[in-house]
Amino acid sequence: MNIIFYIAALIALIATFRVVTHKNAVHALLYLVVSLLAISVIFFISGAPFVAALEVIVYAGAIMVLFVFAIVMLNLGEDSIQREANLLQPGVWKIPTILIVILLAELIYVFASNQMTAGNVRIVDAAEVSQRLFGGYVLAVEMTGILLLSGIVGAYHLGREKKREYHRYLQTNEEEHE
Amino acid sequence: MSNFPLEAGMILAGLLFLAGLYGVMIRRNIIFMLMSVEIMFNAAGLAFVLAGAHHGQADGQVMLIFILAMAAAEVAVGLALILQMYKLNKTIDTDAISQLRD
Predict the structure, then answer these.
(1) Is the CB of B22 less than 8 angstroms away from the CB of A133?
(2) What is the CATH T-level fold of the domain A2-125, as seen in this structure?
(3) Which of the residues A91, A132, A151, B76 has an alpha carbon 20 to 30 A from that of B4?
C-alpha cells in the first residue's frame, strides 16, 4: 500500500508539471485529468472512497468538460485543422496513456489484493460523510448552495449575447439629431 | 491512520500547490492560469482529506466537497469572463490586457 501511494504521487507530480509547462491547451487539459485521477487513487487508498469517486465525477468529468467547451468556443490558434491532425499522432497521447495504465494497474492491484480492509486504514464511507455534512455543517451547505446559484446567475449574465445599449444621454442625443 | 506517513502526503500537497503557483506566475495564457488555480484548489483539498484520514474523521472529506462546489462556481464564472475578454480584445494574453494602465 505504501508503494502505491508513492507511484500515484509521482504520477500526479509529473502530470501537474506537464500541465504547467505544456504549450497546447488541450494537451495540458489531458495531463490535468491524469493528475486528478492520480489524486483520486491517493484518496481511495487513504480510506476516502466517496470523495475519490466525487473527484473523478465532478473534477475530472464536469469541470474539465467546462474547460474543453471554453477552449472549443475560443477556437484558439489560426491553424486549428493542423492541430487537429497533430492530436492523432501517437506522440501526443503516448505519455498520458502510459500514466493512466500505471494508475489502472494500481487500482486493479488494490482491488485484487483486497488490502483496503486488511490494513489499518479506517474507511470513512459516504454515510458517515453525509451524516457529518448535514449534521454540523448544514449552514455551510446552504451557503454553498447560494454560492452555486450566484455562480450560475453570474455565468449566465456574463455569457449572454447582449444587444447594444446606449446610455440615456446618448439616446436622447440621437433622437434630437434625428 | 493511513499506511503511508502523513508527512509524505502533506509534502505531495505542498508540491502540487507550488506547481500551481508556479503555473500562475510563469504563464501568460489566462486559460492556463485558471487551470493552475484549479491545481492549487486540488492540492488544498488533498491536504484536507489526508489530515482527515489521519485522524479517522469525516471532516476532511466534507471540506473537499465544499472545495469542489466552490471550484465549480469559480470555473463557471471565470470561463464566462474569459469568453467576454476574448470577445472584447481578441486575445487571451494577459499582458495584452492593459487598458487600465494606458
Answers:
(1) no
(2) Four Helix Bundle (Hemerythrin (Met), subunit A) (1.20.120)
(3) A132
